[in-house]
Amino acid sequence: METSNRVCVITGAAHGIGAATARLMSLHGMMNVVLSDRDKEGADSLMNHLNTIRPKSSIAFTTDVSDSKQVSQLMKAAFDRFGRLDILINNAGISQSKVAKTADSSLEDWDKVIAVNQSGVYYGMKYAIPYMLEQGHGTVVNVASLAGLVAAPNNVAYAASKAAVINMTKTVALEYGKKNIRVNAVCPGYTDTNHFDQLHESKPELKERLLRATPMKRLAKVDEIADTIYWLCSDQTTFITGQTLTIDGGISL
Ligand SMILES: NC(=O)c1ccc[n+]([C@@H]2O[C@H](COP(=O)([O-])OP(=O)(O)OC[C@H]3O[C@@H](n4cnc5c(N)ncnc54)[C@H](O)[C@@H]3O)[C@@H](O)[C@H]2O)c1
């Protein structure tokens, strides 16, 4: 898979799936990686690590993806620094602060989750695609979730935001297919990250139940999600667009 020197922007790159993807893109794919996260310290620390191994290959930006101006500035800064923008991984995402049935859920939670998980993905594509059009190619991978495919009781905002990501993926793929821009999504199942821990810290018995319900009887590792994202960005998948790939150890079955 020849991917060296490509420029890849990753949102939510400081931790979890985003950080694993950034490491893979940089150290295996030999790409230039633009790490963006609202956590400046985390993104800087990963940047320093990657630049120690591959000097000047990585830059970090503090970006809140729910702020359209910041996302626009991020894409411009990436293009100005490296002169191209080949790959966008829209990965940043949050879970609801409170798990509750719809009538008991908070408006604040709804607004926040939709702003980050749904609008953040829209802003990423809106502001990266013009650079991809200019150079005549591009690849986007949006990180959705199992919760966007099947019902996710007590998580209405999260479920809605991830279902929106799946349909935005199909819609944008259709819009730009003839311009050589591919757009795909991944739907991780339960994955071993902070995000999963936060979701279940108050309910350890639920975590056990989910593990039992997963045919492969374990959580996904972040590297397993990163491998799939990398593959979808590579030249091994040049005719795949508008697709949603589920990586869930079989639980959706
Ligand atoms: N962990 C799971 O079980 C699981 C399952 C399905 C989907 N996902 C999705 O995978 C993606 C990555 O999640 P993760 O599990 O690695 O979580 P994580 O919490 O480990 O990492 C998320 C990263 O996103 C960053 N972030 C959060 N809000 C942001 C914002 N407004 N702007 C910029 N950065 C922001 C965080 O600082 C963090 O670095 C998310 O979209 C999540 O919804 C996770």
Provide a count of the helices: 8
Structural classification: alpha/beta
Radius of gyration, taken over Cα atoms and rounded to an integer in Å: 17 Å
CATH topology: Rossmann fold
Order of helices and strands: EHEHEHEHEHEHHHE
Low-confidence stretches: none
Bound molecules: nicotinamide-adenine-dinucleotide
Helix percent reads: 40-55%
In total, the number of strands is 7
Terminus-to-terminus distance: 31 Å
Query: Could you state the oligomeric state of the chains shown?
Result: single chain
User: Main β-sheet, in a few words?
Assistant: 7 strands, parallel
Defining traits:
253 residues, alpha/beta, Rossmann fold, 7-stranded parallel beta sheet, 8 helices, 15% strand, globular, binds nicotinamide-adenine-dinucleotide
Descriptive overview:
- The protein has 253 residues and is an alpha/beta fold.
- The chain has one domain: Rossmann fold.
- It has a seven-stranded parallel β-sheet with strand order 3-2-1-4-5-6-7, with helices on both faces.
- Helix 1 crosses helix 8 and helix 3 packs parallel to helix 4.
- The chain is globular, with a radius of gyration of 17 Å.
- The model has no long low-confidence stretch (mean pLDDT 95).
- The protein binds nicotinamide-adenine-dinucleotide.
- The site of nicotinamide-adenine-dinucleotide has 30 residues, from helix 1 and helix 6.
Give a nutshell description of this structure.
The chain is of the alpha/beta class and 253 residues long. It has eight helices and seven strands, in the order βαβαβαβαβαβαααβ.
